[in-house]
Amino acid sequence: MPPAQPRPQPAPGSWWSDALADPWRDPDAQVVVVKTPADEPPALEKVPPPGPAPRAGLGLVLMVSIITALLAGALGGTLGYVFAGGGGGVLGGSTLGGNPPLNGRPPDTVAALAKKVLPSVVTISMRVGAGTSLGSGFVVSNDGYVITNNHVVQGGNGSATVRFTDASVAPASVVGSDDESDIAVLKIDTAGLPDDQLKPVEFGDSDRLQVGDPVVAVGAPLGLTSTVTYGVVSYLDRPIRTSEGGTARYYSAIQTDAAVNQGNSGGPLFDGAGRVVGINSVIGTLSEDQATAGNVGLAFAIPINHARRVAQDVINTGKARRTVMGVSPDPSYRNPAGGARLASVEANGPAAGGGLHAGDVILAVNGKPVEEFWDLTALIRKYAPGAVVEIQYLRGTTKEKTSVTLVADAK
After folding, report:
1. Is the pLDDT of residue 394 over 80?
2. Nearest to 198 by CA among 105, 89, 276, 119
3. Are 134 and 124 contacting, i.e. CB atoms less than 8 angstroms apart?
4. What confidence tier does 293 reach under pLDDT thresholds 50, 70, 90?
5. What does pTM read for this prediction?
6. In this predicted model, what pLDDT tens digit does every residue of 121-142 receive, in sequence order?
7. DSSP secondary structure string, 271-337?
8. pLDDT at position 98, please?
9. CA-CA to 65 of 20 to 30 Å: which in 84, 178, 353, 401?
10. pLDDT of residue 126
11. How far apart are CA 278 and CA 182, in angstroms?
12. Residue 377: band (very low, low, confident or very high) from pLDDT cuts 50, 70, 90
């Protein structure tokens, strides 16, 4: 693996010149166009020096003259007809073509959707140490609550600034967050804001999404506020585990090909009706250096049903409930067929109540395959405490199924 290259520094005087190296906070990511060998033009053959140009034949000259005369005659006749007012031309007072209203877009278009949702999306900036964290968020209530990613505000002093799509700004404070689910809640100070400034989003149902559904991401990629990108859902319930600052984060993600980049973190993913179905949080990239990572058609969003539940817990109690099934997977277990082997099962816990034992290999949760040991945690976190899930597992060489009632952890 080649060593990481030193990161280019922002130009002096840039407003974000003191940004952190965190790629989700720092818009200072270069965009580089690389010329591949396949793009090289083919070598040109050597040709002999040009000799005297051959004279055009009489037939060719005559043909060109005839075509030119015909075109000129047609053009002249047309212009004469128009300027004479024939057929209601320009001099007749008619307008060529139609002039639909500039803002008139059918309600099912991306343009109409963007016009509807943009006022609900904000750009979030917060001082973190000697730098500035930059991300996105969206208004979820008339009294000013905003949902974003925890990694957008993590390490800050709790005070942030939100910028609306009309360029107005307002101070905000962090109400609370959950690092493992990567959800944070802010509260805007509404003093001095117009009564109609806050426009809460409409919530969709992420459980009803299907692969191929159209989605729109809105946020501030690379610091470019109020940016709209469009794509489709390319996979559902993709288990995601990320790690930052020693904290592991788990969720069962919505995968999309809508372009998402640094600065989109915490911004909303809308369905075709303009309802929030996810929170854009992670991108897939080929870059080994996160500072230069860019979208390659793989972005991952936290499902809104999960995020909304966590946010409501944070608002009501100051902390989130984490869903568990009372097991510890074995991180050393590897099998080409997938699965997560249980290293231990909590006595009298949900899994034990469903008949699971240490050594059982979990193959699927509600039909979603478990490929790695941490997939089990990510898939379980999707559900609320009290939900009943079907577990497919392997005991010895026998495949079996059981139902487990999930609970909240004791943290």
Report:
1. yes
2. 119
3. yes
4. confident
5. 0.74
6. 999 999 998 889 999 999 999 9
7. ETTSEEEEEEEEE--S-SSGGG---SS-EEEEEHHHHHHHHHHHHHHSS---EE-SEEE-TT---TT
8. 57
9. 84
10. 94
11. 13
12. very high
DSSP E strand boundaries for 86-199: 121-128, 131-139, 145-148, 159-163, 169-178, 183-188
Residue 405's CB is within 10 A of a number of other CB atoms, namely 14
- Encode pLDDT of 88-123 as tens digits: 444 445 556 555 555 567 888 999 999 999 999 999
The whole-number pLDDT of residue 68 equals 36
Give the burial string for 326-365 (b: 16+ CB within 10 Å, else e). bbebeeeeeeeeebbbbeebeeebbbbbbebeeebbbbbb
Helical ranges in 57-109 per DSSP H? 58-83
Can you tell me the distance from the alpha carbon of 281 to that of 180, in angstroms, rounded to the nearest whole number? 13
- DSSP annotation of 257 reads -
Q: Is residue 215 within a helix (H) or strand (E), and if so which, with residue range?
A: strand 214-219
Domains present along the chain, CATH in parentheses: 110-188 (2.40.10.10), 202-317 (2.40.10.10), 323-408 (2.30.42.10)
Report how far residue 111's alpha carbon sits from residue 122's, in angstroms, rounded to the nearest whole number.
18
User: Residue 295: pLDDT band by 50, 70, 90 thresholds?
Assistant: confident
User: Residues near 195 by Cβ (< 8 Å), separated by ≥ 6?
Assistant: none
In sequence order, what are the residues at sequence separation of 6 or more whose Cβ sits closer than 8 angstroms to the Cβ of residue 369? Answer: 338, 363, 375
Residue at token pair 């489709």: 232
Instruction: Collect all residues with Cβ–Cβ distance below 8 Å to 193 and sequence separation of at least 6.
Output: 168, 170
**Which one from 28, 125, 136, 151 is the annotated catalytic residue?**
151
CA distance 284 to 299: 6
With 60 as the cut, is the pLDDT of residue 319 above it? yes
- Out of 26, 28, 182, 257, the active site residue is 182
> Among the options 237, 265, 271, 281, which is catalytic?
265
265 included as an active-site residue: yes
206 is catalytic: no
Residue spans of alpha helices (H) in 318-388: 350-353, 373-381
Residue with tokens 């001095």: 192
